[in-house]
Amino acid sequence: GVSALTALYIGARDHTSVRKTVHTAALVMAFAGAAIMVLGILLAGRGLTAMHTKDELMGGAVCYLRLYVLGTPALALFNFGNAVLSAAGETRRPLNYLTFAGVINVLLNLFFVIVCRMGVSGVAIASILSQYISAVLVIRLLLKSRESFGLRPGSLGMDRETMGRILSIGIPSALQYALF
Fold first, then answer.
1. What is the model's pTM?
2. Distance CA 57, CA 67 (A)
3. What is the spatial distance between Cα 10 and Cα 6, in angstroms, rounded to a whole number?
4. Rounded to the nearest 5 degrees, what angle is found at the Cα of 21, between the Cα atoms of 17 and 23?
5. CB-CB contact of 138 with 79 (8 Å)
6. Residue 13 in this model has a pLDDT that exceeds 90
7. What does the buried/exposed string (b/e) look like for 44-80 if buried means 16 or more CB atoms within 10 Å of the residue's CB?
8. For 107-157, how does the pLDDT look when each residue is reduced to its tens digit (9 = 90+)?
9. What is the separation of C-alpha 24 from the centre of its chain, rounded to a whole number of angstroms?
10. By CB neighbour count within 10 A (0-12 exposed, 13-18 middle, 19+ buried), where does 121 fall?
11. 127-161: b or e for each residue (b if 16 or more CB lie within 10 Å)?
């Protein structure tokens, strides 16, 4: 929803709507990431039980999942930034950031698991850190941008109509994506 609306308004040269969409979407995604994180922490055990996770794996799986969801706010913010930048025609830098974060993830996995002997916790922490690295890089790029899609902390606000448009496109798209 963020990408579609942002691209529409950029194409129409409606800079006011671009700014409103970007700043509303930033808050929507931050809140969604935080909500998913909280739900993931609270429901990790129940979800894994519903999936019939073996008893001998349950402790490690719950630990991993609860740690892993700590990265969902970063994942949401990276996806927000990627959507905005893709709508503006900038796809290379977010991909580079994601690639860099992926390399960091692999290196941290090796460090935490082999050197620190952290096992499942180390793998989850490596994932979290790499997600926050990619989010910081893409948000930093939006903060530095002078374009209408640039992010300005003082302009953050929730426009109900814009939020409704974002969700009316985004929720069906997310459901379709989840089904595939």
1. 0.88
2. 16
3. 6
4. 120
5. no
6. yes
7. bbeebeeeebeeeeeeebbebbbbbbbbbbbbbbbbb
8. 999 999 999 999 889 999 999 999 999 999 999 999 999 999 999 999 999
9. 15
10. middle
11. bbbbbbbbbbbbbebbeebeebbbbeeeeeeebee
